[in-house]
Hints:
InterPro entries: MFS_trans_sf, NFD4_C, Nodulin-like. By secondary structure, the chain is mainly α. The chain contains 21 helices and two strands. The protein folds into two domains: 7-264, MFS general substrate transporter like domains (Growth Hormone, Chain: A); 311-528, MFS general substrate transporter like domains (Growth Hormone, Chain: A), CATH 1.20.1250.20. Helices cover 78% and strands 1% of the residues.
Amino acid sequence: MTFQYSYNSPVGKWLGFVAAVWVQAISGNNYTFSNYSDALKSLMALTQLQLNNLSVAKDVGKAFGILAGLASDRLSTPVILLIGSIEGFIGYGVQWLVVSGTIKPLPYWAMCIFLCMGGNSTTWMNTAILVTCIRNFRKNRGPVTGILKGYVGLSTAIFTDICSALFASDPSTFLLLLAVVPFAVCLTAIVFLREIPPSSTPAEEKEEVKYFSVINIIAVIIAVYLLVFDISGTHGKVFSQIFAVILLILLASPLFIPVHLMVKNFIRSNSENLDVEGNENEIAEPLLVKKEVVVVKEENAVEMEKRQPVIGEDHTIFEAMRTLDFWILFVSFLCGVGTGLAVMNNLGQMGLALGYTDVSIFVSLTSIWGFFGRILSGTVSEYFIKKAAMPRPIWNAASQIVMAVGYILMAMAMPGSLYIGSIVVGICYGVRLAVTVPTASELFGLKYYGLIYNVLILNLPLGSFLFSGLLAGLLYDAQATKTAGGGNTCVGAHCYRLVFIVMSIACIVGFSLDILLAIRTKNLYAKIYASRKTKKSTTAVLS
């Protein structure tokens, strides 16, 4: 007897999920621009507006995520991952060649293209991961999204801290890591990640919740570990190497779950004497039932084609865009992620304007606290749906108002305000991402979810252009003085004050829209609550 598994078994499902976690842990490279933006600015003699437009080009790559969304219904998960990994390898690889001095700086338009490719690569990775995992664990969408988006948030800190620990925060080495590591991890995920039928019994669902809790605990340990490393000051070479090794062990530790399941199955197969004929009879009957169910579903599908689906049913992208709820969700999402991206893209210059020489701490703080926002909001919002039918958009509304307060604090530029602002923006941006993803699937269904998700994240390049490229870039340049090399610089609290005030107003608008969406979807979440409660009661009676 040997250890073995099939892709459709629980072992295969959890191996796929662990691989998905690893991909997400390296796919937040879009949020690391501040770590090498100053090197690009100096090397290419850019103004702040030109630099910000480079960051916009990176985020515009996500606009082409629509291609990944269209492909998600036509191509397999491994193919989608392969496309993303190759594109990222080329996009970040060329940036590394430029920053390392291996080749001469490319023309501005060419750099925009390669930054765009790097940004687009993550849409293929995220689409493959999110669509596949939400379908595999559709009864636990909140925790799944929270965990996966949480690791995306941590990925910035993981890259930043490993580079800081081993390579002294060298921008060219950092870009090399961004090119090579995601490529290698995606190749690993291609082997294990497949779409698998979701849990069909309450016992399986309960077991999933238990394992998600284990992964949550591991993720929190990683986040705290990274946070302690960041706030504990400078470290020696040996200490930093030990830190990196332990971090890699922690990232590998979720493998405990599929290994545990494999061992459990091995022990069970040796201790139980199965009757093959009995099993065949047991299997045959459900297959007949499934065929009947498929026929009924096909008949219902023909009837549903004749009418516009209601909220909670499967929508095509065009059907979704004909609803008011879609546009409320879209614009409120823009207010949250657009302003958040403006801060992340400009953290380097914000820190330098306030007199900080090393801004990597702010990048790491935003990443780590963004993780807490993502992972907690996914689990907590799911809990309150199951216990009190609370609409998920309520949590988006809460994040928007807290983010508005954070921007006001940053505008005041009190001592330590950038530390507080980085934490607040990280948490609220994380909540916004983790809550919006399952909300969209609950409002518009899972059938065309890949495309709907990628249309929603058009807000990333749009928000980056409006709040980072235009607002922050133009207002910074208006305050800045020219430098000898042809660029410019600004020092002082006034550099970004008006930017923060405008972004706080945008968050208040987003808050109002989220409250409106929560009111409009109250009945939908009441139905979800009632459906789960009825199913639970029926199961209890039958048992």
